[in-house]
Specification:
This protein has six helices and three strands. It is of the alpha+beta class and 110 residues long. The chain has helices at 3-13, 16-28, 35-41, 46-58, 77-88, 96-106, and strands spanning 33-34, 62-67, 70-75. The longest helix is centred in the first third of the chain and has 13 residues, at 16-28. The protein is elongated.
Length: 110
């Protein structure tokens, strides 16, 4: 991941509603959530939610999946993984044990 893409992803997540949308979609897993349901779950206006979904999509953090007339959004885990890898690229001067707490914190315990 290059710096421009990382900055785009971080900027997208740097807004409260977009962060909540992303977290909602991560929790939903591969099934994702329909756009209208995202707005209602977050008690947000649909037009505003649509704009937030567009920003997150352009940042490579979510992707739309069309099912007939319904657009379902899914967390783009590859984009999220790439962002985490970029942030940890130079972690602890190459000593992986110094990074162990950070790695453990982001490791899924599902």
């Amino acid at each position: 991941m290059d710096r421009t893409i990382a900055l785009s992803a971080l900027a997208a997540l740097g807004q409260e509603t977009r962060l909540e949308v992303f977290r909602l979609l991560v929790r939903a897993g591969p099934e994702g959530v329909p756009a209208g349901e995202i707005a209602s779950r977050l008690e947000a206006v649909q037009n505003t939610t649509s704009a937030h979904l567009k920003v997150l999509t352009h940042a490579g953090l979510i992707r739309p999946e069309r099912e007939g007339r319904i657009v379902r959004y899914v967390a783009e885990m590859a984009g999220f993984r790439d962002l985490l890898a970029y942030l940890m690229e130079d972690c602890c001067n190459g000593d992986p044990e110094l990074c162990r707490p950070a790695i453990d914190a982001v490791t899924c315990r599902c």
